[in-house]
Amino acid sequence: MKKLVLLFCLSPALLFGQTASELQSKRITLPNGWSLSPAGASLPLGDLPLNIAVAPNKKFIAVTNNGQSTQSIHLLDTKAHQVLDTKEIGKAWLGLVFSDDSKTLYVSGGNDNWIVRYEIKAQKLLIKDTIIIGKPWPEKISVAGLALDDKANRLYVVTKENNSLYVVDTNKRRSLYLYLIT
Fold it and tell me: Which of 24, 27, 82, 118 is 20 to 30 A distant from 161 in Cα terms?
């Protein structure tokens, strides 16, 4: 009986696991000499994929890339496991949120002190408009995290430079309230 239980427990690992040579072929050596052996499939996303958001309809995933190279937003297909679209964004930082109907993506504009609103049409990201929070850098605001209440037309925006919470009306595209976080 113990052998049967052990065989049952090991079966998924044997069926879906990777061989040592498969892991070795995917090994990546980092600049510090360490190495990574990612399990499963991967997609090229840039040098610092900082945040990920799954659309409510589960068809799309958005990833923000905020490293030293080109900053970008990637739209991924969850079923086909492929990158559908990539848009360069001048500055971005962390914030990503889909609308309830999965047809709109809000993206933090980082030190540009705005939120970029993308429309998703034919599996592509199209800039719909921007919501300006303040003047761009050197004004220290820096849009970071985003949360959306679609029913109330409210976007909640936290910042990393002036430690504030902005409550934005998504219809009027303007800030309604500003709360300093101490």
Answer: 118
pLDDT digits (tens, 9 = 90+) for 139-174: 999 999 999 999 999 999 999 999 999 999 999 999
Specify which residues 106 forms β-bridges with.
Answer: 97, 117
Beta bridge partners of 61: 54, 76
At residue 130, what is the residue type?
A: T
CB contact at 8 A, 146 and 108: yes
Which CATH number is 43-180's, of 1.10.4100.10, 2.115.10.20, 2.60.40.1930, 2.130.10.10? 2.130.10.10
Q: What phi and psi, each to the nearest 5 degrees, are found at residue 105?
A: -125, 125
Rounded to 5°, angle at Cα 40 from 121 and 51:
50
CA 51 from centroid of its chain's CA atoms: 4
The H-or-E segment that residue 22 falls in is: helix 20-25
- Choose the weakest-confidence range: 15-19, 24-28, 134-138, 140-144: 15-19
3-state DSSP helix/strand/coil % of the chain, to nearest 5: 15, 45, 45
Cα four-point dihedral sign 82, 88, 94, 98: negative
Cα(14)–Cα(141) distance, integer angstroms? 51
